[in-house]
Amino acid sequence: MNEKEAGEAIISLLFHVNDMKKLFTFLSFWLVLLSCNKGVDPPPPPPERTPRDWTWTRDTLGDGTYQILPRGIWGSSPEDVYVVGHASPLFTGKIWHFNGSGWEDITPVYVEAFPGQVIYPFSATNVFGFGKDDVWIVGSRDTSSTPQVNKEGFIMRYDGQSWTGMTIPGAAGLLCVFGRSPSDVWVGGFHGKLHRFDGTSWTEHVLSDTTIGVQLFAGEIDSRLYAQGFTIKNAYEYYSLLEWDGVRWRIAEEVFGVGKNFTTLSLIEGELYTVVSSSVRKRVGENSWQELFLEPSATFHRVSGVSGTNLFAFGYSEVLYHFNGENWLRFTDFSSPHIGYYGAWIVAMSAFILGDDGGTFAYVLRAR
Question: Rounded to the nearest 5°, which phi and psi values hold at 35?
Answer without folding.
Answer: -65, -30
